[in-house]
Write a structure and sequence with these properties.
Layout lengths: L1 E8 L11 H13 L3 E5 L6 H14 L2 E5 L8 E5 L4 E8 L7 E7 L7 E7 L5 H12 L7 E7 L18 H4 L13 H9 L2 E2 H4 L24 E5 L1 H4 L2 E6 L3 H6 L5 E6 L3
Parallel strand pairs: 1-2, 7-8
Antiparallel strand pairs: 1-12, 2-4, 3-4, 5-6, 6-7, 8-10, 9-10, 11-12
Helix pairs in contact: 3-5
């Protein structure tokens, strides 16, 4: 079967105080792209009022949602699925991650092999913390299992060039991304995940040159121009990777400070 997967750091769930225009824009985008799976970062406020905002968002996008609450930061992660995918189990890890890791295992029609989905938002405050988080993700990269890990890693790939504007960042922002040499941007987090067996789908399909931050409408904030959002899969799933696109358009220029990624896969029965 063919599966389309969207991952998106939505910047406070598209909410600016009481102003939900960015959320409305994001909902329209999701409706237009119609992914089978949506991995969301910064699902802020979705746990309030008995998860009222989560349930309202489910209704707006026509997908079933699973929320991992970030107890320290409020920057929750979430996974949404569409029929005919069926949930088997869900886990939320807010202890080993600065924000939270959402892990959902689903049944796929036509096959007995389950698919494990992980929505991640790694710590923005330094590579040392992100490497510890990566250690918890590395063990999920068994080559024969179907698994997908996507989200905001606040890191560069070993194959990505040094951001041309990295030195222009104010020191207090640049320090978040520094390698151990305290000069260049860190690439050790993604390198560690790849060493464990995770496959960078953007690189595999030759589409990794497109940055995911900052969106045009949020230039001059805390980001250098770089790729910090990734879609990673196990070896078993990587063979079915069919497409990968950073969705850059007028609507995504203003909807969040990150650009979303849309990928598709062919899963053999």
């Amino acid at each position: 079967m063919k599966l389309s997967v969207l991952t998106y750091n939505t910047l406070f769930a598209g909410q600016d105080g009481d102003d939900d225009r960015r959320m409305t824009t994001q909902v329209a985008l999701i409706d237009d792209l119609a992914p089978d799976i949506f991995l969301m970062q910064e699902a802020s406020g979705f746990d309030a009022g008995g998860h009222a905002r989560l349930h309202a968002f489910e209704t707006r996008i026509g997908m079933r949602g699973f929320l991992a609450v970030a107890p320290r930061t409020g920057q929750n992660t979430a996974i949404f699925i569409r029929e005919p995918l069926k949930p088997i189990s869900f886990e939320s890890d807010g202890a080993n991650f600065h924000h939270a890791l959402a892990t959902l295992t689903v049944a796929l029609p036509g096959t007995e092999r389950p698919l494990t989905l992980m929505s991640a938002h790694l710590c923005p405050n330094g590579a040392d913390i992100r490497r510890r988080e990566a250690a918890h993700l590395a063990v999920n990269a068994g080559p024969d299992r179907l698994a997908l890990l996507a989200g905001d890693f606040n890191s560069l790939s070993p194959r990505d060039p040094e951001p041309a504007d990295f030195a222009d960042l104010p020191p207090h922002h640049r320090s978040r991304y520094l390698a151990d040499d305290l000069v260049t941007a860190d690439r050790s987090v993604i390198a560690k995940l790849e060493a464990a067996g995770w496959v960078d789908v953007g690189h595999r399909l030759g589409a990794s040159a497109v940055p995911t931050v900052p969106a045009t409408g949020f230039a001059g904030t805390e980001f250098a121009t770089m790729r910090c959002d990734f879609v990673l899969t196990t070896q078993a799933m990587a063979g079915g990777a069919a497409s990968y696109e950073v969705v850059r358009a007028p609507v995504t220029d203003i909807a969040s400070d990150h650009y979303p990624i849309l990928a598709s896969f062919e899963i053999a029965s």
